[in-house]
Amino acid sequence: MTGRTIEELAVGDHAEVSYAITGETIREFVDATGDNNPIHSDPTFAATSRFGQVIAPGMLTGGLVSAVIGTCLPGPGTIYLSQNFRFLKPVHVGDAITARVEVTEILRERNRLCLKTVCRNQHGEVVLEGEAWVMPSKAHVEYEAPRVDLSGSWSPAYSPAAFAVQVMSLWLVGGLTFANQALRLYHPRVLRPSEPSPVPR
């Protein structure tokens, strides 16, 4: 993974990563955060809601944005300063969510970036949008992370969904400070405005 400095970034740079939301993803997030709202875990209860089925916690989707920021743009060493979200559509088990961030403003003298943050489902519908302010690393970073499971032991297999859960947990517990040890997910890319976006996987 590459952590870019503010001098290496330009307005319009963007990155995105796609994830499949599974029942296991939601269970891991609920276990990690204690968000035991039955609308996220009890199909019988969720069937009586306005959504008619289990939905993913909104902050799980938000965690995917955090993962893109920490692994792709600006990348390792980034510090989260603030984030707002608007949750526009529910996310269900089986949805494929593409999280995307784009540089919209650069304050070089303060080492600050403003990022547009958007998540879309497999139908191209926006399920979440917002804006983040972050502080990129002051030094260029080239980092190859050891893979870690949720218990903290070393493991060669670590799913992107589980990583997003852990990222969101660290974000919530750490006061929006992104963990420097991030993992490479689904071959993310940072794109210049002139480059076409890859087809969501």
List the helices and strands and how they pair.
Blueprint: E1 2-3, E2 14-20, H1 23-33, H2 43-47, H3 58-71, E3 79-87, E4 96-107, E5 112-120, E6 126-135, E7 141-142, H4 160-173, E8 189-191
Antiparallel strand pairs: 1-7, 2-4, 2-8, 3-6, 4-5, 5-6
Helix pairs in contact: 1-4, 3-4
> Roughly how many Å apart are the termini?
20 Å
Using only CA atoms, what is the Rg?
16 Å
Which strand order does the major sheet show?
Answer: 3-6-5-4-2-8
For this structure, what is the CATH homologous superfamily? Hotdog Thioesterase
* CATH topology (level 3) name: Thiol Ester Dehydrase, Chain A
CATH architecture descriptor text: Roll
Based on Cα principal axes, name the global outline: elongated
Order of helices and strands: EEHHHEEEEEHE
> What's the tally of helices?
4
CATH structural class: Alpha Beta
- Low-confidence segments: 153-160, 169-189, 196-201
Percent range for helical residues?
10-25%
Major sheet size, sense and barrel closure: 6 strands, antiparallel
> How many strand segments?
8
